[in-house]
Amino acid sequence: MTTIKDTKQEIQFRFPKGFWWGSATSATQIEGAAREGGKGLNIWDYWYEKEPNRFFNGIGPDKTSDFYHRYKEDIRLMKETGHNSFRFSISWSRMIPDGSGEINQEAVNFYNNVINELLANEIEPFVNLFHFDMPLAMQKIGGWENRDVTDAYARYAKICFELFGDRVKKWFTHNEPIVPVEGGYLYDFHYPNVVDFQRAVQVAYHTVIAHAKAVREFKKLDIQDGKIGIILNLTPSYPRSSHPADLKASHIADLFFNRSFLDPAVKGEYPQDLIDLLKEHGYLPAVAEGDRALIKQNTVDLLGINYYQPRRVKAKENMPNPDAPLMPERFFDPYVMPGRKMNPHRGWEIYEKGIYDILINVKENYGNIECFISENGMGVEGEERFRDEKGMIRDDYRIEFIREHLKWVHQAIQEGVNVKGYHLWTFMDNWSWTNAYKNRYGFVSVNLDKDGERTVKKSGYWFKTVAENNGF
Ligand code: BGP
Description:
Blueprint: E1 20-24, H1 27-30, H2 43-50, H3 67-80, E2 85-89, H4 92-95, H5 105-120, E3 124-128, H6 136-140, H7 147-164, E4 170-175, H8 178-185, H9 197-221, E5 227-233, E6 237-239, H10 244-267, H11 272-280, H12 291-297, E7 302-306, E8 311-314, E9 333-334, E10 342-343, E11 348-349, H13 353-365, E12 370-375, E13 380-381, H14 396-414, E14 419-425, E15 439-440, E16 444-447, E17 453-456, H15 458-469
Parallel strand pairs: 1-2, 1-14, 2-3, 3-4, 4-5, 5-7, 6-8, 7-12, 12-14
Antiparallel strand pairs: 8-9, 10-11, 13-15, 16-17
Helix pairs in contact: 3-5, 7-9, 8-9, 9-10, 9-12, 13-14
Bound molecules: 6-O-phosphono-beta-D-galactopyranose.
Active site: 375 (nucleophile)
GO molecular function: beta-glucosidase activity
Organism: Paenactinomyces guangxiensis
């Protein structure tokens, strides 16, 4: 086995004892076996069948790294890369093929096997229940637009808690719930490709209701040592300047893209400014009696934070057409900061201090809730060119990316933020929504031309030393 020794210097950035080192994945992106093992279709299987040309190189979710069959080998590689924890998601349409009916025993067996294998390797399973993968049968009745789907989801969540809660202690209701709202109902990069602000608001609201109902089920079960959380992609919103118009623009972007989920999940209530804004423009969602109490009583114990890039905005430069359909961009323009550092492959700004700013905000404004970095990572195209003669991809840029972010996480810990871990996106190169295999993110490379052959990258071995030393 190859090992990469970190320099023999003293550990400068030491993390608290028991820090969670690991990585994150999602069912649709790694499992494969899309039509196997009794799985029902989800929106990704369906959309790919309808419009394969919307996916990079025409590759769909049926061609992934095949974790469904290769989980043992993969878990062994997790061990080899120093993981003490690992996040995966359960596929709702694998567990309950039509979303609301019979439980699929083959799925129960599969997830039991994965959980048991992780525990046998001393890797703590972190389980997420929904990662963009609405069962097709549920989408056909309206997806999150239909309130009945929130009940089907809560039932599915309860079933998972009951079946796996004896061994899984960290649970998450959703990953990045704003993304299906943006992708599916505003900007056309997820099925059902609707562009409609009113419907987007309803979808976002019902996602919060579904979340709160799942949390309620969890709390009823009183799982020993169990924690329930949500995973949010928090994009700190930076104004171009301190001019009041820029500040207002950035405040509104923050309300839409961060606080629309962060506040109800952690504080149990929506920000009044967001309610006022939607009301002023006539876009409040339909609500039901008792919703306010439901949200208030079902806040999370644990917050997962995904951080990739900041959002920079400025006041609108041209008066928006008041008759155009409302979109969030009515309230701000994007701002390109001169001299910013970019990941050219993904087109995202790299701003390491953003991770610290989020954490400090969580400490100061969200009761210093227990949290962890649940995703952070760097997607790079064409990594094969960095493969050396021994067959290892030398991804030094990824090591630097992780290290620079970890320094800011460490700083936040020094200042008292309750951060418990760091998970990279992602464990192995995976299929990524419409980008398919364009950008690679993993500690482990997956060679699609060689039957999915896995090789650990330099970053994977580096991470092992970090995890073992609990610092660097
Ligand atoms: C997050 C998602 C992941 C993953 C990651 C990288 O938003 O939770 O599923 O895909 O982003 O983004 P992408 O794959 O689009 O490059």
